[in-house]
Design a protein that fits this description.
single chain, 7-stranded mixed sheet, mainly beta
Length: 112
């Protein structure tokens, strides 16, 4: 299983970004995908999750929306009304076949 994030970058406060997680190697619809984020020196924080069939989503913050027609291929994280506290490295994760898989992360920086 491989997860590759993209879409991060520099954005001004109040702006939006859409992150993408490209997924390969998952054949079962039983493996959901989550987004986490981490600031240097702090614990990794759960942001959003989608079930393996794409029908159930959960978001820690109403500004963020996870989506994906088929989470076995690609999952998105739409982030709106960003503020400086959203600055972090964002990671894609799945627990599949009894193992945890992480992507390499994509940096989101919110700054004026």
């Amino acid at each position: 299983v491989q997860l590759v994030e993209s879409g991060g970058g520099l954005v001004q406060p109040g702006g939006s970004l859409r992150l993408a997680c490209a997924v390969t190697g998952i054949t079962s619809r039983g493996c959901g995908i989550d987004w986490f984020r981490q600031v240097d020196g702090k614990q990794r924080e759960w942001v959003s999750g989608i079930s393996g069939n794409g029908r159930t989503t959960n978001n820690a913050d109403s500004r963020f929306t996870i989506s994906g027609d088929d989470p076995r291929n690609r999952v998105y994280l739409q982030m709106n009304s960003l503020n400086i506290n959203d600055t972090a490295m964002y990671f894609c994760h799945t627990r599949c076949m009894g193992q945890d898989f992480w992507g390499q992360g994509t940096q989101v920086t919110v700054s004026s």
